[in-house]
# Entry
Amino acid sequence: MTNATTGKHATVSCPFCASLNRVDLGRLEDGPRCGTCRRPLLLDRPVAVPGESFDRILADAEVPFLLDCYADWCGPCRIMAPVLDEFARDRMGEVLVGKLDTDRYPEVAQRLGVRGIPTLILFSGGREVARQVGAGPRAGLEALFDSLGAAPKTGGRFPKNASSPSAKSG
Ligand SMILES: [Zn+2]
# Structure
């Protein structure tokens, strides 16, 4: 029953009814469905991250979580979109790819220190490990993941205290 290679989960927001669903990433081929509205949850593309669910989605992601902070009017974001689509499809189950509409959820974007869009932030274990500002090729996305290799593999807490992320009051 339990498969050693699976067992990683992530929480995603249903694009239809916004219910949060915990998904077994090892069983995506079974076609996960929303527990509330029964419509399919598709993880072969970036999933929309509602601002109010961001913290929960971040905390629950048991795989690296790549967040695209974008806006509809942003040209470079449109250039980036197909790159992210392809990336999400290729790395389905290994990486959770989300997108945050910075116009709808400016408070989350501000909290993340997003100053330009698109901003791509890679989180692992609930922490930011790398970010890219501006559109770029697929290789740039892959390079963000190099930062993961340097991180300790143990899922435990890191000894170092959260180095203050330059809290500028403004
Ligand atoms: Zn639903």
Summary: Residues 75-90 form the longest helix (16 residues). The pocket of zinc ion is lined by residues 14, 16-17, 19, 34, 36-37, 39 (CB under 6 Å). Residues 4 and 26 are 10 Å apart (CA to CA).
